[in-house]
Design goal:
This protein is of the alpha/beta class. The protein is built from 8 helices and 13 strands. It has 2 domains: about 70 residues, no CATH class; about 300 residues, Aminopeptidase (3-Layer(aba) Sandwich). It is globular, with a radius of gyration of 30 Å.
Length: about 375
């Protein structure tokens, strides 16, 4: 029986219609299966293959990217310390006694490909001594306590010295964490302490930078029975910018591993240099020995970052500052109170400690570190 032309055409249209209905359903199933595979660990190799196969075809690449999960390295992160706050990173020294001076925390680290000459012993007259005290620099305070307040806050020193300390040792876990936002900061070489710089006044060699100073603090605290962890992370290398953000992550990591931590010490060294290139070393004569002057940089919330407990931090620092300056007159420079918080919001025992300047020698810095750590241990054990 011969089919009519209309009959054959009608059946053909029905088959085509059924096919069109099947294609979207099949495509949807394949799309979902493919997306599931891509987003699973098993699909990482397939993902790379597809992106490679897409080549420079913008449409193919766009379609694949719509289905692929966001890569970690492509994600936009919101730093805890905004980039705008980074210029606050170098705490400024008290340089009222230094007319025509420039202050810096050393230049950014040079690229590895740029050769840096070995350090030379300083020329005569290129490093000068200075002892910074609050009275001659016109800072607020009296006796053993002076402040250089760069905020609009009123500071009641007497009340803060009377305030009960929130830093109390407890348990048998780690009590103190030592970290370094600018770990490559180093000192002026002497005949016994020379190093290969990573850039001027900096080195990645932990025998000669501020990590060595942190070692000395850790040693004294441990000898006094206070468990201490010292992080060797160089948060300023190879990149200087963003070092405070990286230091915060370093702090969080160690505090998470050691929730018993009561004190966080961020150990730095300062820098004072004139426009003529003359470095100043901040020194004090302690028991007939040259010691690098110390300085606390106290963070607040005035810069806009949350830090409700800054007065508790300052209270603890004031007590330690007063104790050190009473026992070792001249060892402490006035406390520098700043608008930025410098990662001191983590716990009431947080502090940023400047140990000397780039003009000081390593032995001067180590001597001061010993005196500091001894009195820190004493005040912690008393609490």
């Amino acid at each position: 029986m011969v089919r009519s032309r209309k009959s054959r055409k009608r059946k053909h249209l029905q088959r085509r219609r059924a096919g069109y209905e099947l294609v979207p359903l099949t495509a949807l199933i394949l799309f979902l299966a493919f997306a599931f595979l891509i987003r699973s660990d098993a699909g990482s190799a397939l993902e790379n293959s597809l992106i490679s196969a897409a080549g420079s075809d913008p449409l193919a690449c766009s379609l694949f990217r719509l289905m692929l999960p966001a890569r970690t390295e492509d994600a936009v992160s919101v730093p805890d310390e905004p980039a705008a706050a980074e210029p606050e990173a170098p705490p400024s020294p008290l340089n009222a006694s230094l007319p025509d001076s420039e202050v810096y925390e050393s230049a950014p680290v040079l690229p590895a490909a740029v050769p840096v000459p070995a350090p030379l012993l300083p020329d005569e007259g290129s490093v000068r001594e200075i002892t910074i005290d609050g009275e001659s620099d016109g800072c607020a305070g009296a006796g053993s306590v002076y402040l250089r307040n760069e905020t609009s806050y009123n500071i009641d020193v007497s009340e803060l010295l009377r305030r009960e300390s929130k830093v109390k040792l407890s348990g048998d876990g780690v009590q103190v964490l030592i970290i370094h936002t600018h770990g490559t900061e180093a000192y002026t070489p002497d005949k016994d302490n020379q190093y290969v710089p990573s850039d001027p006044d900096r080195t990645t060699d932990s025998n000669y930078n501020v990590l060595r100073v942190g070692d000395e603090i850790e040693r004294i605290l441990s000898e006094n029975g206070i468990k201490t962890v010292h992080s060797y992370t160089l948060n300023d290398y190879p990149a200087y910018s963003g070092s405070y953000n990286r230091a915060l992550e370093d702090i969080k990591k160690h505090v998470k591993e050691n929730p018993s931590v009561k004190v966080v010490i961020d150990v730095h060294r300062d820098a004072m240099v004139t426009s003529a290139g003359v470095k100043y070393k901040a020194v004090a004569d302690i028991n007939g020995q040259r010691a690098a002057q110390l300085m606390f940089v106290t963070g607040t919330d005035e810069g806009g970052l949350s830090h409700d407990g800054w007065r508790d931090n300052l209270s603890f620092q004031l007590k330690l500052h007063s104790r050190l300056n009473t026992l070792y007159p001249g060892i402490m420079r006035p406390i520098n109170i700043r608008r930025g918080r410098f990662n001191q919001h983590v716990c009431p025992g947080s502090m940023l400690l400047e140990v000397g300047t780039s003009g000081n020698t390593l032995p001067e810095a180590l001597y001061s570190a010993q005196l500091f750590a001894g009195e820190l241990a004493a005040i912690l054990l008393e609490n």
